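Bit of a strange request maybe. I'm writing a small parser for structure token strings and I need a real example to test against, not something I typed by hand. Could someone generate the tokens for this chain?
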Amino acid sequence: MEPDKNNGKSSSLKDGFVLLLKDTWLTSWELIRITVPVVIITRILEQFGLISYFSMALEPLMGLLGLPGSLGLVWATAMLTNLYGGIAVLAALAPGLDITDAQVTVLCSAMLIAHALPVELSVSKRAGANLLPIAAIRLVGAVTYAYILNKICLHFDVWQDKAVLLFKGTTESSGLVQWGIGQIQNLGMITIIIFCIVLFMRLFRAIGILTLLERLLAPVLPVFGMGHHSAPITVVGMVMGLGYGGALIIRETASGKIGRREVFNAMVLMGLCHGLVEDTLLMAAIGGKFGGILWGRILFSLLVTFCLVRLLRLLLDKKKQSEKKIETILTLYVITIEYDHGFFTIW
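Reply from user aminoacidic:
Good idea to test on real output. This should exercise your parser:
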């Protein structure tokens, strides 16, 4: 019997490892499809000296966040593609960067709040939330949080050591072969990071950390304008990612269990704070500090959502009061007209 048990365990471990490699490959393939065109375009921009023009155009905004203008290209790419696209540009620009851990954390935080906008905003829209308000909240939220985080880091002299980037750097004057080898090494490094993240995600599921996070957050969310139907789903989106949470919200909205206001509140919170495990680990792997990319982001997102929900409730109450006043005035006006024309009768 003992050999059979050992064979069963080894078979399970083998199957688990195969699934792990399969998940890593599927994610890496998506990364390669996005990254290869991005790094080629970035190289062309470098060769023609256009990076400096993009940097100058983005300098005012990035300067506000305490970042060099060239990092604006990293964030812009992440917003249009995804986090991996942004990382690809960061890897391509690595040799020319002289930045601190705080600056990496600020950049990572902005990317975590506003990335993959074409895809993720379409999820929000399908869930029933208006596209423009959600887009504005995420963009303004990203800039605001990055600005606050930068000021805190400078004021308290936090994370001011020079950042150590994991990527293989090549200079603009490097030959194509040397540049190509460097990019292959960068892809290999990112693939290793993906493997580690997939492994950690499986471990977290197995030992119940993801479930614990969901249980910790679920009782808090009703304070932020979410009911018993939307709160658990929002937690899933916050922990696992907007794709997971958004899909569940879409299904629940279609069934009529969640109202439009709840959907909006849920998408605001998920938009500002999602992928707390996978995305955070990815940003930590390139140098982001957990204090900024995780704990600070959670606190900021909850605070913004709380204030926004309260403000919208206040405006809605005022609108209802105004409508009631108008209704009362119109009623009195109609009564007066009827009285003047002799139609008024006391029953």
